[in-house]
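Before the break, one more example. Copy the sequence into your notebook; we will annotate it together after we see the structure.
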Amino acid sequence: MNHNIHSFLYTFGLALMVSLTTSNLHADENADEIQDQIKSSLKAYAEKDYKLALDELKFAEVQLQEKVNQENKVLLPEPLEGWEAEDVKTTSMSMAGGGTMMSRLYKKGKEKLKIEIAANSPLMGMMTMMMKNPMLMSSDPNTRPYRYKRQKGMIEIKRNRMNTKLILAGQILVSLELSGLNKEEIKKNGEKITKQYLDKMDFAKIKEAFLE
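Here is what the structure looks like once it is written out:
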């Protein structure tokens, strides 16, 4: 039996039992689906049915991740005055090798801004390398270095789109893609709109939520 699984099951089980005991709760009145899955995993482990124990634990992990995703929705800002925003979307980046991505679309007339936060993806290394090397960015006439406060990044303008990207702590990519304006309007107002939304984001909380 893998030592990490053993330790996790044991620690999780102790935490669950302490929580239930100190809260003086009755299992039949307060148990939720996640608690049921964890207890089923512990029971299967005690009976040496390790595959079932792991399956139950994975199921609980997925449900716990959904709760984490719900809590993290507040990391994407509310719309600026005069703008509207769609619901936050959270997706797994398993097809890209792992990680999590959250996004939200903001609209004001013909203007659209999509904010994405992608974390812990294996693809982050290439993006970080590019942003740390101005020579690579300067090789593309549509791309230039960008800095927001102490965060380094890049701006890419193609046709009627401006994409601003920042890397946080080498593991988190924050992307703001502005569209719906012509190229001249983007050059004139694009950075201003982007900065207004960046000002509403709490980078410290984003790092706390996503850094491993």
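The chain has a mean pLDDT of 80. The chain is about 45% helix and 25% strand. Try to locate both features in your own notes.
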